[in-house]
Specification:
This protein is of the alpha/beta class. It has 2 domains: 3-217 and 512-539; 224-311 and 333-507, Nitrilase/N-carbamoyl-D-aminoacid amidohydrolase (4-Layer Sandwich), CATH 3.60.110. Helix content is 45%, strand content 14%. The chain has helices spanning 3-20, 35-46, 55-72, 80-108, 111-131, 155-158, 160-182, 190-217, 245-256, 287-298, 415-423, 442-458, 504-508, 511-547, and strands spanning 224-231, 266-268, 274-279, 303-313, 325-326, 333-343, 350-353, 404-408, 428-433, 462-466, 472-474, 480-481, 490-497. The strands form 2 sheets. Strands 1, 2, 3, 4, 5, 6, 7 and 13 form an 8-stranded mixed β-sheet that branches. It has a 5-stranded mixed β-sheet with strand order 8-9-10-11-12, covered by helices on one side. Helix 2 (35-46) packs antiparallel against helix 3. The protein is globular and about 90 Å long.
Length: 548
């Protein structure tokens, strides 16, 4: 096979993965998307003298670059630099994983262990993307079923990383089946070939069958919560940070008021709706807060959830966080937050600070010696640089209804993180977001369908309020109810059922990833060990030959 054919195979892989991706792709293609790369690796493995050390990385990179580029190009609408970095670096990380698999295959000299290393390395990589400051789990393979959520109702047991496991093993099994039929080795019997085909077929089909059974049999307990969701459609580029707070709150209430009544439990408005610079040490003095508190006098049983930008200054002698900023004219410090605020007539203002922050926009290295990097933060309006976070996944107390929690924008693609709100007592979840930065592209639609996966993992109903679309209600099976249109002011009113049961995934989180990290680390250690053992034996052999 010529090298140009390997490039063509890599391009084919990238296109298959792209056409598999939500929300308009067909996820069945995910089970075949890595096969061209496995063929490339196998060709290099069997002909080592014809290739250089990093050939697997070189030939796999085009596939991942095409996949990343064609599915997440829309980042460019908000930040050109951010799009380039996300696409180039994430493609590189993926190619490195394939190269590590190739390294392990050469050193372990055992195909079962080698292909197991690919599974573990990839899942460990996705887990890393869920848990470090440069997180970008958007293209985690398990997310590919967001629009076809009826296939993965078993995510309540495995989380989305169970989908990643499903996809990678399917690719390996199908590749083995193809290779067995093409191989002319007499030791490979027809029975072995047929067994591989049957195993691959069952691995593909059984999870889907189980999922449809779970979907058909799942019944929500009747525990109604009445919710009004507002989509104010404030242009994030030209209005969000300049429209007066009184006008913003007025627009939200003009939309919502016809839908409110004495039985309404929640009014939900989107992320960053309030752009008055509010200091948490004196929240009740700000106009936006007073205007919203006045609404509670009309509807004393309502709970209002809304997003805003808040700040907190540190008193003298108080411990300062790593994200704190210094006032230019004094030695005092403050933190900035992307905040979800809950109002009701009985409790004090309840604040939750967004804690899974968008890399390059809301979080940059915050170690003391690296604070200078914050001047390179991408400016999307509002507060620029690393934001403060909360250590706990907070649950709000409410008036005459159930306990709830908010996930702010980007947080809704982190399964284990989202599940911690539920583990702490949330019976209904809210997602508040502002998806207008990406324009009318696949970006906001992909973000939207990921919400169905979170509903399935936690079996929690979700009310989603997006400033510029799409807002909707999502039930515990992941079904989308009353979705709004993009870039249109809208209000939806509905009833969602609360749930107190904790799923296996909520209780145990990403246990698949933790196992993969341990097993992958073990296989990588053995690969390194065998590498040095082989080098030592080679060296001793040379010495022996010289001695002769």
């Amino acid at each position: 096979m010529k090298k140009k054919h390997l490039i063509l195979l890599s391009i084919l892989s990238g296109l298959i993965l792209t056409f598999a991706w939500p929300e308009r792709g067909f996820p069945g293609l995910l089970f075949f998307g890595l096969i061209p790369l496995l063929i490339i690796e196998n060709q290099i493995f069997n002909n080592p003298k014809n290739f250089r050390r990093l050939s697997v990385l070189y030939f796999s990179y085009p596939a991942f670059f095409i996949w990343n580029g064609l599915t997440t190009w829309w980042i460019y609408n908000s930040t050109g630099i951010g799009a380039i970095l996300a696409i180039v670096l994430n493609s590189l990380f993926m190619a490195i994983i394939f190269n590590l698999f190739h390294f392990s295959r050469k050193k372990l000299k055992n195909d079962f262990a080698a292909y197991a290393s690919l599974i573990f390395y990839w899942i460990a990589f996705e887990y890393l993307h869920l848990n470090w400051d440069l997180n970008w789990p958007w293209l985690n393979l398990g997310n590919g079923f967001g629009a076809w959520y009826k296939w993965v109702q078993w995510y309540e047991y495995t989380g989305a990383l169970g989908g990643t496991l499903w996809v990678i093993v399917a690719n390996i099994l199908i590749f083995f089946s193809i290779r067995s039929f093409l191989c002319k080795d007499a030791k490979i019997t027809l029975q072995y070939r047929n067994s591989l085909v049957v195993l691959a077929f069952l691995w593909l089909l059984l999870p889907i069958m189980v999922s449809y059974i779970l979907y058909s049999n799942y019944k929500e307990e009747i525990h109604p919560v009445k919710i009004v969701v507002v989509q104010p459609n404030i242009d994030p580029f030209s209005e969000l940070y300049v429209v007066p707070p009184k006008q913003v709150v007025g627009k939200i209430m003009d939309l919502a008021r016809p839908f409110l009544d004495s039985t309404t439990n929640f009014l939900v408005a989107p992320e960053s709706a309030i752009q008055e610079e509010m200091w948490e040490n004196e929240m009740n003095t700000f106009m936006s807060i007073r205007l919203l508190q006045a609404i509670l006098l009309e509807y004393p049983d309502i709970n209002i959830l809304i997003g805003g930008s808040t700040f907190r200054y540190y008193s003298k002698g108080e411990e300062v966080s790593s994200t704190a900023r210094q006032f230019t004219d004094t030695k005092t410090y403050y933190d900035a937050f992307n905040t979800a605020i809950l109002f009701n007539i009985h409790d004090k203002l309840q604040l939750y600070h967004k804690s899974k922050l968008t890399p390059g926009v809301e979080v940059l290295p915050s170690f003391r010696n690296f604070k200078w990097i914050e001047k390179f933060a991408i400016n999307l309006g509002g507060t620029v640089g690393s934001l403060g976070t909360d250590k706990l996944r907070k649950v709000y107390s409410t008036v005459k209804t159930v306990q709830v929690s908010p996930a702010i924008c980007y947080e809704s693609i982190f399964g284990e993180f989202f599940a911690k709100f539920v583990r702490n007592g949330a019976q209904v979840m809210f997602i508040i977001t502002n998806d207008g930065w990406w324009g009318n592209t696949a970006g906001h639609r992909q973000h939207f369908v990921f919400s169905s996966l979170r509903a399935i993992e936690t079996r929690r109903s979700i009310a989603r309020s997006a400033n510029t679309g799409i807002s909707a209600f999502i039930n515990q099976r992941g079904d989308i109810l009353n979705p709004t249109s993009y870039w249109q002011p809208a209000v939806i009113k509905g009833i969602l059922n609360a749930n107190s049961r904790l799923t296996f995934y909520v209780l145990h989180g990403d246990y698949i990833a933790r196992a993969a990290v341990f097993l992958g680390g073990l296989l990588f250690f053995l690969s390194i060990l065998f590498h040095f053992v082989a080098r030592k034996e080679k060296c001793l052999k040379k010495i022996s030959m010289i001695g002769l």
